[in-house]
Amino acid sequence: MDKKICIVYTHHKLGDLIWQLPYIKAISEHYNEKVDLIVREKTQAKNILLDLKYLNQIYYNNFRKGLNYWIDVFKLTKIFKKKKYDFVFILDKVNKPAIAAKIAGIKNIIGPGIGNQKKWLTNNVFLSNEDWKMNYSEQSKKLLKLQTIKIKDYFPSIEINTGRLEKDNPDLLVKGKKIAFGVDSFEDFKMWYEENFIELADLLHRKNLFDYIYLICGPEKSYIAQKIIDNSNQNYFIDCSKKDLQGIILAIKNSSFYVGNNSGPLNLSAALGIKTFGLIANDPISELKYSKIDPITPKDYIDNVWNRNREGMKKIKTNDVFNHIMNDLEI
Q1: 5-146 and 163-329: identical CATH topology
Q2: How many Cβ atoms from other residues are within 10 Å of residue 159's Cβ?
Q3: Class of domain 163-329 (CATH, top level)
């Protein structure tokens, strides 16, 4: 079709970006063209999405506030003018990319149109203000439906060539059976306790299910991984808290399964095609209906109820997690 298409997504969380991949792919398939993507640098999209065949080029914009708001608008306008896009799709309600696209003279500016954003768009059907209560994935699903763009697969999937990741991470290439624990989260109330991970590791080790466990953890919460290592008195843990996202991806891809808190790496693991168990007590599992994450919840769990107290994670009992995993693995 020979159309130039750009898709903008402004949220900073890795997990949120992963949820958008089916919709980005659907737009690409609809026009039979590779698309460009503009996202926040914090997502590290250039590291994780490099091998996706429907993406052409990835740009970073940090979508700041205050005086920097207009600096970012200028940067976006410059990209739009240089690339001369036929379509700019905006997968959230922010005004900034819509204003920049208007200034750049883009003929087709498509977005959800909630609030003031609709003033800058060229589509004439919009999501309602009530739709903003839906999660980000459902909003994008409805946006594409309004644009008559078919979505063939709602499950996020990431293709990646791990060969390019191995050179900088030789310490992760240990021989033996590996699994991964995702032990931190951007939000503390989603984190299972360190002693539970230690107990789970012990139970799994007795069943000879691993030789090593990668501890997936961000550098700002490296103390969690260190506490697990120190308190366990075991040498089978591999601390990945100092690894960048490419190292994290390599560790996950080398694992036979992943067990972790509801966070970006959990979504990443499922999208990478690894058997993934999510430890969830304080937020809705209904949001995972288009994910291959296998949720493990407390026995008294009620869906669609938010609880921002980490104490709720104590309701997820170690033996229940162990039994769930063993049943799933049919061992």
Answers
A1: yes
A2: 12
A3: alpha beta
Which pLDDT score is estimated for 1? 60
Which residues of the chain form beta strands (DSSP E)? 5-8, 35-39, 55-60, 87-90, 108-110, 178-182, 212-216, 237-239, 257-261, 275-279, 293-296
Where along the chain do its domains lie?
Answer: 5-146, 163-329
CB 77 within 8 A of CB 98: no
pLDDT at 307: 87
Starting from the edge strand earliest in sequence, which strands make up the sheet with 212-216, in order? Answer: 237-239, 212-216, 178-182, 257-261, 275-279, 293-296
C-alpha 100/C-alpha 77 separation (Å) is: 5
Instruction: State both tokens at 136.
Output: 């980000």
SS3 content of the chain, % helix, strand, coil (to 5): 45, 15, 40
pLDDT in tens, 43-84: 999 988 999 999 999 999 999 988 899 999 999 999 999 999
Phi-psi region of 156 (alpha: psi -120 to 50; beta: other; left: phi over 0): beta
Tell me the pTM.
0.90
Phi first, then psi: what are they for 275, rounded to 5°?
-60, 125
Residue range 281-330, pLDDT digits in tens: 999 998 898 999 999 999 999 888 888 899 999 999 999 999 999 999 98
Look at the chain and count its residues. Answer: 331
Extract the tokens encoding 121. 């768009």
User: 5-146, superfamily in CATH?
Assistant: Glycogen Phosphorylase B; (3.40.50.2000)
Give the three-state DSSP class for 160: coil
What's the CA gap between 150 and 26, in Å, rounded? 7
Q: Give the SS3 label for residue 187.
A: coil
